[in-house]
């Protein structure tokens, strides 16, 4: 494996639509390892920031750079949406598809699919149409379908929105295993408990800009701004 596509650097990144600034200016650098949590009130720009990092949001100014050329970096990252999108195929075929696109040998595809079916506990449902799975199962499958390609970086937008405790735990276990395998994870969440459980570093978005950022211990233990303290208390932030 060639060296990581990280660090990721955002320089003066802004996204404006119809005269309104949705994001920025943002200057950020994300190191090679760990899990970054992006938190903030509704509409603060979390998803826009995530999409900008992934290269799917048209920038009005600035640049997003990886340590390798953009095209290479694109191939080595994956993005999982808040509402998982299932191919109208079986559960196993949903896992097989990204590997077929990579033109991996059949035996390798078979082995990886079997491994991931077991990891997400869906071996018995391998031939079921994926659209029939429950919300939690769909999200596990969507994450597995992203990780099966072994990306350097996994972006997740609110992966546990609307999921119960058991489903959330199952997804957090998947993310922890991915971290152990050195996948870099960058995700948004509204769940502060989840943020504390998973983050190695965190970003607090407010009104489209990074209001505060830092290592998890400092960020959660000793927030620097009144707004972040208020957000942790559950106050409404204007
Ligand atoms: N394509 C677009 N055109 C115009 N406005 C947009 C567009 N996409 C997002 N917005 C607006 O940009 C702002 C930031 O949206 P974004 O989805 O990034 O926020 P968020 O922090 O992820 O919010 P939430 O927590 O509700 O998911 C919001 O006010 C949203 O309505």
UniProtKB/TrEMBL annotation:
Gene Ontology MF terms in the entry: ATP binding; ATP hydrolysis activity; transmembrane transporter activity
Domain ABC transporter residue range list: 8-232
Pfam families in alphabetical order: ABC_tran
Record-linked SMART domains: AAA
Alphabetical UniProt keywords: ATP-binding, Nucleotide-binding
Superkingdom of source: Bacteria
InterPro entries according to UniProt: AAA+_ATPase, ABC_transporter-like_ATP-bd, ABC_transporter-like_CS, ABC_transpr_LolD-like, P-loop_NTPase
GO CC annotations on file: plasma membrane
PANTHER family on file: IMPORT ATP-BINDING PROTEIN
Name by which UniProt lists this protein: ABC transporter ATP-binding protein
Source lineage: Bacteria, Pseudomonadati, Pseudomonadota, Alphaproteobacteria, Rhodobacterales
